[in-house]
Amino acid sequence: MFPKQTQSAFLTTVFDMVLLGRFPYIMWCSNERDIEKVLETLSMLEIEDLAMKDFNELSGGQQQKVLIARALAQELDIILLDKPTSNLDIKHQLEVMDIIKNLVKENGISAIMAIHDLNLASRYADKIIIMKSGEICAAGDPASVLTPKNIEHVYGVEIEVINHERAAYILPIRPIR
């Protein structure tokens, strides 16, 4: 038996976990709008079938999608996301990034995220900042930031940039010694 990827100290359903995102709007109890927003968000992330499951019993990837749903349920003008695609397989990474991009586009909100996958950043980000040791090394559009020189400096890896119609893709070649 493999150990769980994460473990929460409290028992709660997925529905209640996402409802926690509505906390800024709830006085003493949730209302119909809060319930509708939770259901809408669960549906948007295609996890409505998990609503009554215990959050602790989900896989790491499912938990990640629930936490993203909780953030989206807040209906903020700016969403801060810390590695929103961690623990997700490729299909779910693309689905989550598409959802975030569509929310930004359709609702006029901003999404700021920390992400280590340079290919996802290249494909989805409008602006990128890369940092090393807490210092900003480059900032701007993906093409001007994700260059071999910048990536070599920040990550110590020789890369090749492959241009595709959707984005530039970063192909790691070897560590620089």
Description of the structure:
There is one protein chain. The chain has helices at 14-19, 32-44, 60-72, 90-107, 118-124, 142-145, 148-155; strands spanning 78-82, 110-114, 128-132, 135-140, 157-163, 168-175. The protein has a domain at 116-177. Helices cover 39% and strands 20% of the residues. The chain has 7 helices and 6 strands. With 177 residues, the protein is an alpha+beta fold.
List keywords for this structure.
alpha+beta, two-stranded parallel ribbon, two-stranded antiparallel ribbon, 39% helix
Give the secondary structure arrangement, pairings included.
Elements: H1 14-19, H2 32-44, H3 60-72, E1 78-82, H4 90-107, E2 110-114, H5 118-124, E3 128-132, E4 135-140, H6 142-145, H7 148-155, E5 157-163, E6 168-175
Parallel strand pairs: 1-2
Antiparallel strand pairs: 3-4, 5-6
Give the neighbour order of strands across the main sheet.
Answer: 1-2
Largest sheet: 2 strands, parallel
Percentage of residues in DSSP E strands: 15-25%
Shape: elongated
Secondary structure tally, helices: 7
Give the low-pLDDT segments.
1-5
Number of strands: 6
Helix content percent band? 25-40%
What does this entry show, briefly?
This protein has 177 residues and is an alpha+beta fold. The protein has seven helices and six strands; from the N terminus they run αααβαβαββααββ. α2 packs across α3.
